[in-house]
Amino acid sequence: MEEHYKKMVVKNPGNALVLSNYAEFLYQWKGDLRGAEEYYSRAILMDCSQDGEILSKYAKLVWELHSDQQKASSYFQRALQASPHDSHVQAAYANFLWETEEYEDGRSLGKEMATDLHGSCNSLT
Predict the structure, then answer these.
(1) pLDDT truncated to tens, each residue of the chain (125 aa)?
(2) Which of 78, 50, 47 is closest to 62 using CA atoms?
(3) Could you give the number of structural domains in the chain?
(4) Helices (H), the chain
(5) Which of 99, 57, 103 is nearest to 76 (CA)?
(6) Suppose 52 and one of 26, 42, 82, 95 were both cysteines; which one would form an S-S bond, judging by CB atoms 3.0 to 4.6 Å apart?
(7) CA dist 93 → 26, 33, 50, 104 (Å)
């Protein structure tokens, strides 16, 4: 299967759909997040950011690979602008918002726990 995708990329290096399909394969089946990032990036450049689905998949990957909330959010916003009625894009963005809220809540909780623990340790001395 991978050889098929590689041949398609060689034959169609400027085709955003081919590039994004290969990126999806690398991401979902091979677990190659860095490779997927490269091909999603190329697909976005070829498509001039008109495909909300590609943008949202790239945003999800950016969040998973780099935990870069600001960059992922920016790509999700672009995805929504490109495809405002696409339920897959909307669902991916909603999931991202849910995850980042939990991420932020977890960071806040961790800081509170560290502060409480530090205060407790000081009272023992």
Answers:
(1) 999 999 999 999 999 999 999 999 999 999 999 999 999 999 999 987 689 999 999 999 999 999 999 999 999 999 999 999 999 999 999 999 999 987 676 565 445 544 554 554 455 55
(2) 78
(3) 1
(4) 2-11, 16-25, 33-47, 52-66, 69-82, 87-124
(5) 57
(6) 82
(7) 21, 19, 17, 16
Token look-up 């340790």 returns: 121
CB neighbour list of residue 25: distance below 8 Å, 6 or more residues apart: 1, 2, 5
What is the spatial distance between Cα 103 and Cα 64, in angstroms, rounded to a whole number?
A: 12
Q: Which of 29, 27, 28 is closest to 41 using CA atoms? A: 27
Domain carrying residue 71? 2-124
* pLDDT score at 115: 53
Contact present, 62 and 78 (Cβ < 8 Å): no
DSSP label at residue 14: T
- Here the tokens at position 11 are 């034959």
